[in-house]
Specification:
18% strand, Enolase-like, domain 1, Beta-Lactamase, 5-stranded antiparallel beta sheet, 3 domains, 3-stranded antiparallel beta sheet, 12 helices, homodimer, Arc Repressor Mutant, subunit A, DNA-binding
Chain lengths: 348, 348
DNA sequence: TGTTAGCACTCGTTTTGTTAGAGTGCTAAT
DNA sequence: ATTAGCACTCTAACAAAACGAGTGCTAACA
């Protein structure tokens, strides 16, 4: 179902959308008349608007109000916009700078904060999931008291700790031996490549510490893929208060709750949809398209970031339907580029 | 300036406070008259109330409304309450259970969530600061590309990672040697005990890697005391929407912002005040006593938790002035006891 | 035939006015 | 010392009225 608009209707539609974005209030024919470069009387505009309304692109909230764009109207606008600017991006990373950080979490939180501040919307960012990341090495140390510290380092210098409770106290040599065993067998593999085959080979090779090897592998699995407890960080939640259409009544409460309760949006939107295939990097959900009940009045723009070598996660910008899609998309593209850069280290 | 009340006045004051806590609305003489066990007519109550008002313990928001407690009134009430129950605590840890966790951050976040849900208020929790914690050991590993991974483990099994950029590539032996040097010199010390003396001794002992040792020590310092960037976690922020007196107008926005912008409350209230000396564990800030502008309508109850061996941080419960102080104090005490328990591991 | 001016009409918002009720303080009686 | 009674005050809630923004339609116009 393709929608075709003559040029004038399109101009009017855009004018309505832009005006509505600025004010957040329904916009009437008189306003448009003054706003357009072409000189048209309010009456003419009204006729055109009636048509646009019939097409389902705009509505009036009540009889004697101006028009506001429908989801469908926005969708059209956004699609045009996206197809127009395609990829003139990636050159504009002068924008803002990220302090060099070593810890991924900090980087993510900084990024979220930055985006929230830059856009005046709310930002949500998921930690990366590592299924495609290669293990670099594992470092075992004894902590005394029958406890073992397993430090798992994977490509991109992602470091995770794990304390595990092995029943017995291991000797220094035993630990060294285990260390060697683990690294020689696992180093360079992704989590998915650690097959039962390899595991049983390792157990055979060692013979003695079968139980412990199991525990260690569990720990590795947990720290590397996080077992779908990928952390999610939010920033700029208070920004929603800038948009009355979101905070009217007790909607504010619901929204803030939905943001604190990160799961739904995080899982469904940010990770969601087919993970496979290289979708287009940037995705826009408008109003009803957002699969979270309490966010039907919002739009969400998501992007996939990559921290080198298949480690990827998602960023989402959450704002009112009248958000500045253009800016958000730009900013997101720039941010993606930067995240890429941070971990693409100068190979000395 | 001691305030003394005859028994009847006190009873009336308490009745007002309790009623106000339940309803959140000003309470009038008639209500109290019915509420009290002793039979007194509204008129009598009114007279007493006039007295209480003169003493600054209650006020009427406007001429023809009931009375509500002032900060001063609350203070009196809370003080009485605290002194009465002193420490009948620590026995009631049946309450709620914490899943055993290895990572401190997770424990803290879980705790915050739990408290928020249990109390219907907002919880803020600071990560611990480690100045008094002893170093257990340091584990260096090479990450290639001139990068070194330093894992710092301190008492209570707190693990921190740090990636550092040493210019050169170190040999496996060099790293082992450094490892040994660091551990033999630093193990068992607190951050404050690492003096210049020790440092120069180490440098002398090694001679070669002076520059690297410096970097490592920086990393240790940073990971161990966090350089006042102790993380702060918040949970239950949306709870404030349950209390109209906090969310009236756009106050909600300010409050939520203040909560997201963790610094002020975090630093001032939670860590703040003389860190020294063993203050009483639980502290209550009422209304104006809260040193954050946007929280003048709130009360904050803070407690200090200890994760064994001098690792301590603070928990704060933030709610309306009419919060259920009694319950909050109880819950906090119980929580503290549990956190203690979690890290007081069975010495096998 | 497309555009525009004019006008009657609609409907939400704001203002103003009215009322009801809760609560007080005071006085006088018990 | 307590209480009943009463006049008074002030707010919250509701209703009515005025306002105004915006529309759709019709008729005139280029």
């Amino acid at each position: 179902m393709e929608i075709e608009l003559d040029e004038r209707k399109e101009k009017i539609l855009y004018a309505i959308i832009q005006n509505y974005q600025e004010t957040g209030e329904p916009v009437g024919s008189r306003t448009i008349s003054k706003y357009l470069d072409v000189k048209l009387s309010p009456a003419t505009i009204r006729n055109e608007m009636a048509d646009l309304e019939e097409m389902g692109l705009i509505v009036q909230p009540h009889t004697s109000a101006g028009r506001i764009p429908t989801d469908k109207g926005y969708r059209l606008y956004v699609d045009r916009m996206l197809s127009q600017k395609q990829l003139p991006s990636t050159e504009r990373d002068a924008g803002f700078l990220i302090r060099r950080v070593d810890r991924v979490e900090e980087l993510l939180m900084q990024m979220a904060k930055l985006l929230a501040m830059n856009t005046s919307y709310t930002t949500m960012i998921t930690g990366p999931h590592y299924r495609k990341t290669k293990l670099k090495f594992i470092q075992l140390s004894s902590m005394g008291g029958g406890k073992l510290l397993a430090v798992v380092v994977s490509e991109g210098n992602i470091v995770k700790n794990n304390i595990l409770d092995v029943g017995e106290e291991l000797s220094q040599e035993g630990i060294l031996q285990l260390n060697l065993l683990l690294n020689s067998n696992l180093s360079g593999l992704t989590i998915d490549e650690i097959t039962l085959d390899i595991i049983s080979r390792m157990k055979a090779e060692d013979g003695e510490h079968v139980e412990i090897i199991n525990k260690i592998l569990d720990a590795v699995a947990e720290s590397i893929q996080g077992d779908d407890k990928v952390p999610i960080y939010t920033s700029g939640a208070p920004n929603i208060f800038k948009y009355p259409e979101l905070t009217g009544g007790d909607r504010a409460s619901e929204l803030i709750s939905a943001l604190e309760e990160k799961t739904p949006l995080g899982r469904i939107v940010l990770n969601g949809e087919g993970e496979d295939g290289d979708k287009k990097e940037i995705q826009v959900y408008i109003g009803d398209e957002v699969p979270v009940e309490s966010m039907k009045d919002c739009s969400v723009v998501t992007a996939t970031y990559e921290l080198g070598s298949g480690v990827q996660g998602k960023i989402g910008i959450i704002g009112p339907k009248r958000m500045d899609y253009e800016k958000v998309v730009e900013v997101l593209q720039s941010a993606m580029a930067q995240m890429d850069a941070v971990f693409k280290e100068v190979p000395k």
